[in-house]
Design a protein that fits this description.
About 65% of the residues lie in helices and about 0% in strands. It is built from 5 helices and no strands.
Length: about 160
Amino acid sequence: MLNDPSQSLEAANLNSVVSHAATIDNLIEPVAKLWCRSFGISDTATIDRLKLAIEDEAHQALASGGLDRVQHRLDSAAEKIIREWFAYVLNRDIPSSGKYLAVLRLAFLDCNYESKWSSSFLLKDFCVQELSAELQTMMIMPTPQANPRSMIRQAI
């Protein structure tokens, strides 16, 4: 029956679920692509891994209040996942400062020059020791903080 209320309710629920899934995907995909691109990765399988990893955060963000803070929460979730992966690869804690992640990004870009590690990004079942050694070699060493001083005036 076409006028059966239960069928129209089912159709409305299905449309709602499809709409919600499309909204989630529209929110997640640009975030995942930007984060992967910032590491020099355009591999669709890797982008899909990051999308899948931040999908739970997208659902929680939408359920807890709307779109205003979703982008920030998704960025934070993606950063956390990437930071945890680097911690796994390097076998040490990764500080939460943006500077340290920038150093890791630069080192990874140097290591991944010929897309050697693109397909392994965010995976845990690959030759971690080799990437870890390459990252250690490519990482910029921290420098002391600048301490500006005034020059002494001299008559020449």
